[in-house]
Specification:
This protein is 31% helix and 25% strand. By secondary structure, the chain is an alpha/beta fold. It has two domains: 53 residues, no CATH class; 61 residues, Transcription elongation factor, GreA/GreB, C-terminal domain (Chitinase A, domain 3). Strands 5-4-3-7-6 form a five-stranded mixed β-sheet. Strands 1-2 form a two-stranded parallel sheet. Helix 1 packs antiparallel against helix 2. The longest helix has 20 residues. The radius of gyration is 22 Å and the shape is elongated. The termini are far apart.
Amino acid sequence: MSVAFRRESDEEHLEPKFERPIAPGPNLVTPRGLALIGAKVEELEAAVASAAPLDRDAVLRELRYWHTRQTTAEVVPTPPAGVIGIGSRVTYHLAGADRTVEIVGGDEADPAEGRIGFQAPLARALIGAEVGERVDFAGKAEAVEIIGVA
């Protein structure tokens, strides 16, 4: 019989599973972010024992990612009062509206909750600024006015 008609197992046709990519650069986190990473590691360690054989590889892959993030985490010090840094809650005026965001580590970011990673373009524009300053953003000079920093 021709090789073309031979049925092979479904396992041979599955796409290979690659490791979850890790963002380049330092793994800067807030104290809250470090606690969230620790909680995720504990959750996944508990899930490994109860995972079905097919799911076990996926859980172990996630666990490797979070272990790496935990061991490389660098907790950033609190920025000086009034200066924007990682861990700051910033109120700013942009495009006719006032908005508030918190600048956090990459794994802690959740834009829907108002948390943006320090690598985000807006965060990079804001870091180092102080209340009353205007910063360039999205190719526009002085596009963002800083209203408050906490």
